[in-house]
Design a protein that fits this description.
This protein is of the alpha+beta class. It has helices at residues 20-24, 58-62, 75-81; strands at 4-10, 30-32, 45-47, 68-74. It has a two-stranded antiparallel ribbon. The protein is elongated and about 40 Å long.
Length: 83
Amino acid sequence: MVGSKGIVIIESNRCKGCGLCIIGCPLQLLQLEPETVNIKGYHPAAVSDLKHCTGCCNCAVMCPESAITVKRETKKQRRVNHA
């Protein structure tokens, strides 16, 4: 969606650290957190630069654990929310 901003929500404790979301992100905005370990003992994924996310949802589609949710905020919504 052109003109939208993505908001990625990662449920860290559901993440297995498989890295499929990282591969799926066309802008390479995801990474595994090397200093964080979740309750399963894995390094969870995290967004490195949310301001460039377009909300394409590739990361959520690739996640086998359904640990990622993506929401989109359009330019119009941003103007209303920040006015």
